[in-house]
Amino acid sequence: MEPRAVVKEKFFIVIRGKSRKGFCRGCIGRVETETQRGELTGLLYCGGSNALNPKSGGTVRKEDTYSLTRHQAQLLLFVSSVSKRLELLCNPQLFSAICELSQDDLVVVKHKKGHLPGLVKNLMQIGKKEHKDDLHMLGFEDSDQNLSSKKPPLCPCSVIPSYSVPLGLHWKDGQSGGLNRKAVTRFNSMPNIGSRARQTREKLTEQSTVQGQSPSASHVPLEVGSLVEVVSNSGVTVYGVIQWLGVPAGKTNEWAGIELDYDVSGCSDGKYGSQQYFTCKASRALFVPVTKCSPDSRFSCSSSGRGTSKPTDTLLVPLYEDPEEYAPPIPESEALSLLVGKMKGIQGHINSCYLDVTLFSLFSSSVTLDNICQTPADTERPITCTFREIVNRLRRQGFVPAQSVMNFRQQLGCDTFRTEEKDPEEFITVLFQKVLRMGPLIKLRSGQDTCQGAYTFQIFLEKGQMGQMPSVQQLLDTSCLSGDLKFEEVPSCLMVQMPRFGNKYRMFSHIIPSTELDITDLLYNSPRECFLCGHLAEFECLQCLPDRKMQPGRIKQFCSTCNTQVHSHPSRQAHSPRALPAPAASDTPVPRHTMQLFAVLCIQTSHYVSFLKYGPDPHSWLFFDCMADRHGDDQHGYNIPEIRACPELGDFLSQPEEEMARSHPSQTPELVRRLLCDSYMFLYQNPATPLSRSNHEEPFN
């Protein structure tokens, strides 16, 4: 089929699809021809030192590209990292704001040591154009630079319009001076697209003139817990949550103490003057007159009152919705920057917390479960594509809107999943069995009976069998021995459900998390060491489990000699030790089989939250709440999910279990207390044996 020539100059960036004929994701190209089959052929601009000089790029599907203006293409071309290009394009508000920057617009310049305010002056053309097809890159020039300076120009990724990103300056009461400004400059020869910042400030000024109040004032009542923004006299906007309202010492009018979303130089930890009004992280507390505060415009409802503005409604392109795409788990080095903050994680909606925390915990950063996501989605089953979309959005953008999850809930095949409260174990069974079409994750054997499968392990025992504050290891050991259960093999993923039923009943007020779960002595027909001498064990005894003279809570198995000696004691003569299967004799030490804790699901007042271990560092813990806050009423509002870093949890869990058991939960930090008191399900993984679909296939007709 004959291609038709493209007259008007067009640029594009490849946003998805596999690499084919020269083009790959993140590449920037210029359209040469477009076929009637919807394919583009064009020139490829590689970036880097050869960015100006194009080369033949080949063919790419039009649906896998996003159209760019020449100005946008030049700015993105200076971003050498392909992943950063796509990340910038995925933030439409920020990217549009950067493209629209004009002279004298206020920006924040990212430096290694922090963020400094600046003003747009010029935009630099980078490189020497020697051919008509060459394309200049565009970068911002620092005010300290001149054309002969060897200091490199600023990348568009490091220049942030102050009205689009929550970064700001220390508030100076009634003053705008004293700013340590870093200026960037734009060549007058470049197109002046218009100043969005200046238009915004003019609009605010007009509104304030009509309403007779300051631009940032608002008729909406503010209270402790309100999400607000503050615009300084210099035009820089900061965002945060009101933590205190009142009249501080030395003032006569009402002020607000705001905990900011980001660290800001010059801010405190909740202290103003000599008085501590509230407590937060250092460099997060800002004190301003309450008249300077406005409701956070990022989460504002529509003026009609009939709908809400959703953060994802303005996405320029569906960057990560291709079911053939694979997004790797979030690495430890990127988790904090990608995930921590408000409107992060999965947005809750209509009793979805059980599902949101389960998906977040299982698939955001776990490497063990990643093999599931590497298998291409079945395009004939839309639910697998929706599942892949959720996982990809979570891993690449750090946020999944409620609508994506609602689509998934509607496809689960049962109306109750859309509106009613559920428990995680019910969803886990449906997820692995019906959606992922995988067989049971764990295989259990009861006595000499045949093996049975399950997706989660429920702890069953009598309360009198355990102390007041047991560990997960003790609960698992006791439950298995009491029910005469053994694992047929070491599972790749083990989800252990605590002895509680929803929010109404829990057997233990506190449970100690075991960061490492040793299941060596719970494996069927596997060699085990004698508890006392270390030789090959031949007997195990359930009645010895709580024995306070022999490490209560630990499984007790003995060789023949030690079994006779232990049960000759008068207090143990009534015990009934059971003979173990006789494995093949071996002189080699018995290998230990352990699993690592990577997430905990908790419940409080019928609401599920989760803790996630996102890396090997002991302090790499996150707390996720899909409904941490809410904007608007029940009819027209929406939930605000939030993820918080909680390194204090790592400090607590680094202690020996005996030390943790002696700690009173009321004396521990808030999130540590929630973990101890509200734990519902502990998730463990075996990094040595990643979960494989081929080993857990479920037959379907």
From TrEMBL:
Decide whether keyword Cytoplasm is in the record. Answer: yes
Q: Name one GO molecular function term.
A: metal ion binding
User: Where, subcellularly, is it found?
Assistant: Cytoplasm, Cytoskeleton, Microtubule organizing center, Centrosome; Cytoplasm, Perinuclear region
- Kindly give the Gene3D superfamilies that the UniProt entry links to this protein: CAP Gly-rich-like domain, Cysteine proteinases
Task: Name the chemical reaction catalysed here.
Answer: Thiol-dependent hydrolysis of ester, thioester, amide, peptide and isopeptide bonds formed by the C-terminal Gly of ubiquitin (a 76-residue protein attached to proteins as an intracellular targeting signal)
- Ranges of residues in domain USP: 344-687
Domain of life, per the record? Eukaryota
A GO biological process this protein is involved in? protein deubiquitination
Q: Any idea of its EC number? A: 3.4.19.12
What residue spans carry the region label Disordered?
569-588
Main EC class of this protein?
A: hydrolase
GO cellular-component term (any): perinuclear region of cytoplasm
- Residue ranges constituting the CAP-Gly domain according to the UniProt record: 246-289
UniProt keywords (A-Z) are: Cytoplasm, Hydrolase, Metal-binding, Phosphoprotein, Protease, Thiol protease, Ubl conjugation pathway, Zinc
According to its UniProt record, where is this protein mainly located?
A: cytoplasm
- State if Metal-binding is listed as a keyword: yes
Q: Which family does it belong to?
A: Belongs to the peptidase C19 family.
PANTHER family in the record: 40S RIBOSOMAL PROTEIN S3A
Q: What is this protein called?
A: ubiquitinyl hydrolase 1
